[in-house]
Each structure stands twice: as C-alpha cells, then as structure tokens.
Write a structure and sequence with these properties.
Elements (H helix, E strand, L loop, with lengths): L1 H17 L33 H14 L2 H4 L4
Length: 75
C-alpha cells in the first residue's frame, strides 16, 4: 500500500509535466494564394446539374415553408 500511495503523486506529476510539451506551430503562408478546398456553387451539385433557376426556385419554396403563418390552415 505504501508503494501505491507513493506512485499516485508521481504519476500525477508526470501527467502534468507531459501536458507542457507543446511544440510551436509554424504556418507558411504565400500571399495571394488560397490553400483551401476549391468551392463549387450550390446549384452545381449532382441534384441540380447546374440548373441555377431550379435551385433558386427550390430555395424560395424552402424559405416559404419556414414561415409558420403561411403553413397555418385558413379558417
């Protein structure tokens, strides 16, 4: 039991010291160049096949369905 009671503080100290070993992060940046993923337009997906008008129509319908006053039944 004496060994266990001595090992617990030593292991805790080792864990605390291990957390201090952060390495510096170096960022190499070339001005004027974007290194991220190339973006595509939403209407260029497989679902719309490049049809921007259909995509805009679907977005208008989606926005309209979020309006609760339009979704309520008429009395």
């Amino acid at each position: 039991m004496k060994i266990v009671s001595m090992m617990i503080p030593l292991l805790a100290a080792a864990a605390l010291v291990a957390g201090c070993g952060e390495k510096p992060q170096v960022l190499t940046h070339e001005p004027g160049k974007y290194h991220g993923k190339a973006d595509t337009r939403p209407w260029e997906s497989a679902a719309y096949g490049g049809d921007k008008a259909r995509w805009e129509s679907d977005m208008r319908a989606r926005i309209g369905n979020q309006n609760e006053l339009r979704r309520m039944p008429a009395d």
